[in-house]
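Renewal narrative, Specific Aim 1. Our central claim is that a sequence can be written position by position from structural information alone. The example that follows is taken directly from our test logs and has not been curated for this report. It begins with the structure tokens describing the chain, in the order in which they were read.
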């Protein structure tokens, strides 16, 4: 590491976050640290380098980290679009411009095409000034942006022009031709810039220059339940589904929360085609430990270089087995859990996650904080440190899960507080139904009386518990534990029957405990935590 990297990393990898922040958004302003902390050997990253299209992953799965890494490591020119900045403006414009033609999804797709190409114009303006760029520069000047503008500014200028034109002329937009006509200003048009941009990109590619990469970050913090949002989503899906026509000019990576995937799929008129180009961010236990080991070695390089050198000779952390083994040097092999039972430490930690990098980093940061001295050295980690670290992290992890589903289940917390302490860790369909009748229906009535628009029958209640990973389906049992399959650990929905048995996830049974019972129920082991 050079001096700048060390200084930047020490601000990020510190006593508060010994393995660095669990949220990649905290690394956006620290590119050197972000580049170092990202573990590049995973298979998912390799597939993203090769494929254009949609990146689907749960909140905390690393979508932002992957986009940041693509931006930092790419030889391509990169246009990065902020969905929270751009989407509200797009929704307002769509409401105004297309209120008379809500069925014209193709026109909304054409609008997305124009908006994405406008961000590509911005990239091309940042190149050498020459005659080939003149039509693009003239168009930018007429519309009111320059090479110093942001992608969000360019999109908003485009939308403002469309809105102004419609307001002045009474025009309605029923085709790409109408959109293009509105973007002609004083003899200079979008089409002129568009033609020049395509010719320029093809010319530069023949000269060995790299392709343009367009990145759009996640929409997970934006509410998508409004009618105009649905229309915008339909158009965006259609644009992404047919983006092959643009592939020789630029590639698109669009990060989509899997918590909203059902919304997008429902809005698509041809989901098998529109959503075909997707990459799923799904993690295996061994790969999570590899990410954690990579970050652990960065900590040691900063604060205990000689210790890192010794461990590096013994363990290859690019291999899952080596990454898992290195934590055996820091963590006790087994721990006595809060129920007084002994179990493997790595399994105990992972069963209090939903197999997400963010969850594991949060827990390990909390454990390591208990073991670090004032100089940043990691001391012996005890049984109590492991228990405390998991305990300290559970509330934040559950809050993150609740936030990820806020758009669909705004009253998730109200329901869980009343329902989960009454639900056995190992339960049946009948148990869930009984809890709904006795403890949930009253909550729904109270929320309605308070003026909330809430509707939740038993089926919706059970679906909420399954989708959020509160309960899973029992698939195996030993003398010590019960193994349960949760929806987050597999693609698609978890289908259950009335005869299935269920298990409450350890995260939620810990946060919403039932009164102690004798004998204590067997431990719940979520499927997939075995490293």
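The sequence written for that structure reads:
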């Amino acid at each position: 590491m050079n001096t700048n990297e060390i200084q930047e990393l020490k601000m990020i990898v510190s006593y508060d976050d010994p393995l660095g922040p669990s949220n990649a958004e905290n690394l956006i302003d620290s590119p050197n640290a972000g580049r170092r902390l990202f573990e590049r050997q995973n298979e998912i990253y390799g597939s993203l380098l090769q494929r254009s299209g949609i990146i689907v992953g749960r909140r905390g799965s690393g979508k932002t980290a992957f986009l940041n890494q693509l931006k930092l490591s790419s030889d391509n020119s990169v246009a990065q679009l902020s969905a929270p900045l751009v989407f509200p403006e797009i929704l307002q414009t769509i409401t105004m411009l297309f209120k008379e033609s809500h069925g014209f999804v193709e026109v909304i797709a054409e609008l997305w095409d124009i908006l994405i190409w406008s961000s590509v114009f911005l990239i091309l303006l940042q190149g050498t000034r020459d005659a080939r760029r003149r039509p693009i520069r003239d168009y930018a000047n007429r519309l009111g942006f320059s090479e110093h503008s942001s992608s969000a500014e360019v999109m908003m200028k485009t939308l403002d022009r469309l809105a102004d034109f419609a307001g002045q002329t009474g025009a309605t937009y029923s085709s790409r031709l109408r959109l293009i006509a509105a973007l002609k200003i004083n003899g200079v048009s979008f089409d002129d810039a568009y033609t020049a941009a395509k010719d320029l990109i093809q010319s530069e590619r023949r000269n060995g220059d790299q392709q343009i990469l367009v990145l759009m970050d996640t929409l997970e913090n934006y509410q998508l339940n409004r009618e105009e949002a649905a229309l915008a989503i339909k158009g965006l899906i259609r644009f992404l589904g047919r983006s092959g026509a643009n592939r020789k000019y630029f590639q698109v990576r669009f990060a989509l929360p899997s918590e909203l995937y059902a919304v997008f799929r429902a809005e698509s008129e041809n989901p098998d085609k529109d959503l075909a180009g997707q990459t799923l961010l799904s993690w295996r236990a061994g790969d999570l430990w590899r990410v954690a080991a990579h970050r652990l070695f960065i900590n040691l390089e900063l604060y205990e270089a000689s210790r890192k050198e010794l461990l590096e000779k013994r363990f290859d952390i690019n291999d899952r087995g080596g990454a898992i083994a290195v934590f055996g040097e820091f963590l006790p092999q087994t721990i006595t859990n809060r129920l007084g039972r002994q179990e493997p430490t790595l399994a105990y930690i992972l069963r209090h996650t939903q197999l997400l990098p963010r969850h594991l980093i949060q827990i390990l940061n909390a454990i390591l904080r208990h073991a670090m001295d004032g100089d940043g050295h990691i001391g012996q980690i005890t049984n109590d440190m492991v228990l405390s670290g998991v305990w300290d992290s559970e509330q934040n992890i559950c809050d993150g899960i609740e936030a990820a589903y806020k758009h669909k289940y705004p009253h998730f917390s109200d329901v869980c507080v009343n329902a989960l302490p009454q639900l056995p860790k190992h339960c049946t369909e009948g148990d869930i139904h009984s809890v709904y009748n006795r403890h949930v229906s009253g909550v729904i009535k109270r929320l309605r009386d308070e003026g909330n628009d809430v509707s939740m029958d038993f089926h919706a209640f059970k679906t909420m518990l399954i989708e959020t990973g509160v309960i899973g389906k029992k698939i195996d049992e030993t003398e010590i534990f019960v193994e349960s399959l949760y929806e987050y650990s597999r693609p698609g929905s978890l289908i259950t029957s009335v005869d299935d048995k269920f298990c409450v996830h350890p995260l939620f049974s810990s946060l919403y405990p039932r009164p102690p019972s004798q004998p204590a129920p067997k431990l719940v082991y979520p499927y997939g935590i075995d490293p």
